[in-house]
């Protein structure tokens, strides 16, 4: 097999925020101190070496990129101050931009001002498009008729189109990543689904990836150093990360329940219902969870509470800002729905909420949110490799 060396790889990586890891002389301190490193995940040393010698394919096929949670121990212990933790974060940005087909992620990561302009234009497009279809004469109705202001069919089909575009771009990236990881680890289709034993291993790996690690945050919670008792519980990164994920998934689930209730003729979407209704209760709890997680993340990056947040890029702020606006405007709409006299501003917050939520979905494959797609895949391969070693 021919190995292709890219002499420009390090220069390209620096555009994504990498520190100068040319100072690294591969002493192995980072790998020795990392609580997540093991026989099949000798990072960050291995990944740094790939970058130094220009092995792009090996870098993009390294599951270690995604099994790292950037606790910062490696950077704190590095004798040459090469900051390997920040390098791993940079390599993940580079990987996201390399996996997706449009080049938008590269713009967002390497040209943050232009990326911000693109984000504003995308949200403005969604808002203006819905505004052209809105019934402005209905905003003074005796009830807050959100889906008469913007027809529910328009929101529904705009959402469907946005999700199709998101899944198409996301699937492209996941397939490219999966092929890269499978090549590097020597995993074939037969290893995944070629027999009953293979299917059992794959099912166990999928559960480890999605249930135990992605949702349960086991290794993040048990091994990463910022989860020691000295760290205040309210800002432990594993907890804040988990609440953000659970909140987002809970809101998605509440939306599906709400849509199901409409199909069943129980209620119309966007109308007030008791707080104990399943969709309302789940949405409220999930919204609070999301807002807490995102707000603490924003404060942590602003105050630089953890090594992982000592350096922030425009893409980090963009994702957190979109999530915060989506959550905040959602609660503002709740207040407007239950107000005695329906406020006109409720319609404009609804327009902003839907526009930003649509943008957030559309931008999943291109922003840091892509971790939600790529990390479970890497953890799946990690679990498979661990099973083979046993």
What does this structure look like?
- The protein is mainly alpha-helical and 390 residues long.
- The protein folds into 2 domains: 9-99, Alpha-helical ferredoxin (Fumarate Reductase Iron-sulfur Protein, Chain B, domain 2, Orthogonal Bundle), CATH 1.10.1060; 112-389, no CATH class.
- It is 67% helix and 0% strand.
- It has 19 helices and no strands.
- The chain has helices at 9-14, 29-33, 45-53, 56-60, 64-67, 73-77, 84-99, 104-110, 112-132, 146-149, 152-185, 189-193, 196-215, 218-223, 237-263, 278-303, 314-338, 345-362, 371-389.
- α13 crosses α19 (371-389).
- The two termini are 28 Å apart.
- The mean pLDDT is 88.
Helix/strand structural class: mainly alpha
Treating each run of at least 4 consecutive H or I residues as one helix, how many helices?
A: 19
Shape: globular
Note the run of SSEs as H and E. HHHHHHHHHHHHHHHHHHH
* Percent in strands: under 5%
Descriptors for this entry?
single chain, 390 residues, mainly alpha, Fumarate Reductase Iron-sulfur Protein, Chain B, domain 2, 2 domains, 19 helices, 67% helix, 0% strand, globular
Helix and strand layout, with pairings?
Layout: H1 9-14, H2 29-33, H3 45-53, H4 56-60, H5 64-67, H6 73-77, H7 84-99, H8 104-110, H9 112-132, H10 146-149, H11 152-185, H12 189-193, H13 196-215, H14 218-223, H15 237-263, H16 278-303, H17 314-338, H18 345-362, H19 371-389
Helix pairs in contact: 7-8, 8-9, 9-18, 11-18, 11-19, 13-19, 15-16, 16-17, 17-18
């Amino acid at each position: 097999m021919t190995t292709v060396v890219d002499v420009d790889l390090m220069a390209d990586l620096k555009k994504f925020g990498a520190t100068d890891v040319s100072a690294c002389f591969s002493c192995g301190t980072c790998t020795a101190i990392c609580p997540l490193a093991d026989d099949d995940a000798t990072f960050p040393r291995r990944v740094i070496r790939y970058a130094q010698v220009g092995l792009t394919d090996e870098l993009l096929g390294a599951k270690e990129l995604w099994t790292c949670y950037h606790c910062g121990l490696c950077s704190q212990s590095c004798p040459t101050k090469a900051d390997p933790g920040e390098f791993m974060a940079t390599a993940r940005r580079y990987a996201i931009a390399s996996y997706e087909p449009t080049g938008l992620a590269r713009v967002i990561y390497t040209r943050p001002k232009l990326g911000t302009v693109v984000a504003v234009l995308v949200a403005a497009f969604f808002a203006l498009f819905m505004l052209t279809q809105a019934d402005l004469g209905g905003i003074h109705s005796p009830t807050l008729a959100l889906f008469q202001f913007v027809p529910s069919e328009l929101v529904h089909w705009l959402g469907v189109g946005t999700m199709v575009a998101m899944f198409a771009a996301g699937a492209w990236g996941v397939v490219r990543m999966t092929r890269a990881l499978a090549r590097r680890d020597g995993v074939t289709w037969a290893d995944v689904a070629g027999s009953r034993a293979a299917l059992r291993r794959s099912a166990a790996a999928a559960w480890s990836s999605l249930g135990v690690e992605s949702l349960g945050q086991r290794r993040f919670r048990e091994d990463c150093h910022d989860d020691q008792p000295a760290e205040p519980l309210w800002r432990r990164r594993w907890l804040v990360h988990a609440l953000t994920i659970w909140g987002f998934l809970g809101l998605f689930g509440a939306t599906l329940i709400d849509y199901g209730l409409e199909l069943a003729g129980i209620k119309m979407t966007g109308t007030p219902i008791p707080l104990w209704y399943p969709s309302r209760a789940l949405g409220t709890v999930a919204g609070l969870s999301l807002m807490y997680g995102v707000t603490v993340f924003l404060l942590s990056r602003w105050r630089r509470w953890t090594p992982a947040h000592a350096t922030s890029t425009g893409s980090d702020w963009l994702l957190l800002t979109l999530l915060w606006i989506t959550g905040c405007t959602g609660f503002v709409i709740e207040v407007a729905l239950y107000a005695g006299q329906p406020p006109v501003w409720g319609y404009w917050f609804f327009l902003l909420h839907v526009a930003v939520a649509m943008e957030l979905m559309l931008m999943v494959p291109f922003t840091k949110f892509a971790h939600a797609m790529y990390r479970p895949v890497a953890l799946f391969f990690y679990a498979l490799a661990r099973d083979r070693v046993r």
